[in-house]
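Much of our argument rests on the idea that a fold can be written as discrete symbols. Part of our work consisted of pairing the sequence of a single chain with a tokenised description of its backbone. No coordinates are needed to read the tokens, only the vocabulary itself. The record that follows shows the chain in one-letter code together with its fold in token form.
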Amino acid sequence: MTQTGKGVTSIFAVLGPVVRRTARVLVPFCGLLAILETGGCKGMPTLQQQEALVRSNNLVLDQITTRAVVNVWGEPPHYRSEFTQFFVMSDLSLVPRSRVPAGEAPKGWSSGVHAGEGVYLAYPDRGWLLVFLNERLVYKEELKPEQMQALIKAWAYEDRFKIRVDDTPRAVGVQ
């Protein structure tokens, strides 16, 4: 052990070999990881490219934003925003828990879960339910008219029981 001028062992002298060994392993690993990450990044298409994808009904997951959909298809007739749990599938796609029967897991589920504010856009005239997370399309489902109607009715039913803080009437004299 190396001692400093005052007789105290230097932490750098003790940890030096450990740090050097760790660096020998981590530096190449981090370099490889950076190369894979850079090569694997596709980047988000421009808004115009996204709109072209929506126009052609080519709804590519993780490549389309809510803005592109609304710009092309207009405001959705039915909209919902709620905290949503997602099943992470083996191909890393996401399936909202609400789209899977209660007590079941979707086929191909890898046991991972993710959660966040899910934005649901329902377009009955087009037959699409689109779900966005962090402004990116993460789930799409083509629904038959009767399935879409059942979904819209379920949303309306659930909305009846939501607490609306802003709409709550106050008692007289209560501030």
